[in-house]
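for the record, two folds in this file. i put them one after another cuz i was lazy. first one right below, seq on top, structure tokens after. the second one comes after a little note so u can tell where it starts
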Amino acid sequence: MIRFSFASILVMSTVAAAAADSPNIVVIMADDLGYGDVSCYGAESLQTPNIDKLASEGIRFTNGHCSASTCTPTRYSLLTGTYAFRGERTGIAPPNSPAIIKPGTETVASILKRAGYATAVIGKWHLGLGGPDGPNWNGDLKPGPLEIGFDTCFLLPTTNDRVPQVYVNDHVVPNLDPADPLWVGDKKPNPDHPTGLSHRHSLKMDWSHGHNSTIHNGISRIGFYTGGMAARFRDEDLADKWVEKSVEFIEQHKDEPFFLFFSSHDIHVPRMPHERFQGKTPLGFRGDAIVQLDWCVGELTKTLDRLGLTEKTLVVFCSDNGPVLDDGYKDGAVEKNGSHRAAGKYTGGKYSVFEGGTRTPFITRWPGHIKPAESDELVCTIDLAASLAALTEQELPANSCLDSFNVLDALLGEQNANGRDHLITQNNGNNGTYALRAGDWKLHRYDRHTARNKIVEQQLADTKMPQFVLYDLKSDPSESRDVLQDNVAVADRMKGQLAKLIEDGRSRN
């Protein structure tokens, strides 16, 4: 028999009452979506009516950021509220990466679960699975999301240009046949294993660089795998599956507070949208994938409408990093881009600490609570942990969410609310490339001089960046003029501030 003390019953009743007054929370994170990729942020080559509707009914932030310009570190920071450069193995995760966020770590999910929410992550994970030896693909895939606060998950375990092309539901790969075990590795399992190099002629989408190992669905990937044939998915069906599972979760929990982290993959390579979206834009499969993402947003919001949950739900729309055109496949993104500017007026994109790498669409909507507006307050996905803790009246332990600020008033559009006063952004992992925003000033720091990608190289004419560069975003939002020599005192102050923020190991008081 289970016995409860009066005190424990009182605590549970208090949590239940607080949860009943709290909104449902849906965080929609796009993948590789740039500031200029949706029509409410200026795109003219395609239309995104469902994302635009969110913006028209909520707050469209013009200074909304992720904390890194690649996926794994941004997702780590969103969930943990801590800059990824403070963690270990937080660069782009390989196929067999162990769990990067360790059990017991405070996360957005654990905070909301403590507040009485049902919690789910559906879509791309790319934060590793399993213990120190990595995933046990044929057994229990833990630790994983369920060990850091999620009640359930339905995942693309890595990212779709990396093997394996199977789903993970909670702790297992669904539909896996024990007679056909799944093997994942970083070397060819045998000399005759077909790859994008040996069987390039058979590919339905060719590769441009890398991405030429194991072939699945006519597309070669990073890494090698065999087996698991009954568990494999078709690229074209990913978005439909994310929507199907998300709708199921919302319907199951419509009578209680829920948190859904809808982690899209659409715009990330390999871009292979469902056939019904192919050819819908003049931008090739990349543009078609953006339209598919917009459809996903529409399906989620229609579900909230149908269940009478719209005015009970806070929706946050964001992206994990800025855009990239050629990211390893010949999918027409470069050739068909035309006049479209994926990063809008900003320089750079994915892999860079220029504004185009981390300034992305960022929208909040909660009808009846958020008044439609445009905001230039500085907000970041890393702040969701502290802000949602404040929303649900949860205290943050001092040793958790080390860089997450409570900017809830800014997210809700409260009068005279302020966003954060500074922000560190990074490119990937722990390789010493940072940028510090403080007001209109932005300092770049390149410890290893490795912060260039193809987009940035075109801007910089292949010149090597000095260790420090200073930009005035007010007069130069495209970061085209280094003004460090004319503002030495500002640069020195920001160098010291950045160094201290890194060395202190935290920025939240």
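(here's the note) second protein begins now
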Amino acid sequence: MTPEFTPLEQVTDALQAQGWALLAPADVAALAGTPLAQLDALIPAWENLALDEYLKDGGRYRRRRHASFVQEGDALALSAHRAHWQPVEYNALHGGMHRMFAPVLPETIEQPGWQGLLTALGRVCTAARGTRTWYVEAHQFRIDTTDGIGRPTPEGAHRDGVDYVAVILVGRQGIKGGETRIFEADGPNGKRFTMTAPWTLLLLDDATVIHESTPIQPLGEHGHRDTLVITYRAGGFQDASEA
């Protein structure tokens, strides 16, 4: 289904009113303060991701890298590499596990498109929620059809246990499926659409909505779907001590 994009000037209002906003690629570049070409310069980094060895379904369809940051105002600082952890309440499949993924490469983090995008999204979160220190986790994902089918969200419809989640399409090749679905956490309404253009960005209020992406299948011999998922959380990174 065709996405209905949120005008850039209405992003904060949309987040507060309905719990999500969907931005077109040109508006994502404008938000990040970078030409679209600087975002495109990040795309080759998805050719060098490491296999996710924690999938409980035994699949080999997901590759990823992970990095953590702390954002104060416009200052974004890389944190020491750390394990990704979620409680089982938010991730019934992989919650409760300390998952140490390969780090995002320094040459990726140093690119102006990466810096501009993460910092700009932190400013949006502040505009919607007020001044905070944001604890940011960035995940590069490639879901492929090595197993015949790839599952972007094997845990199903879920929340992430943070304040805001950004899901950004980096690219898709030779696949069908991968539909994005958003549901009210405490209501009957939902939206469904397929992100097809690189740098389409979905921003979610994690307390208001739950989300999932449907499995992908190859159109030919092989295919894949690349995304960048960035989470923003006030008060600290998720940690097992909170359980």
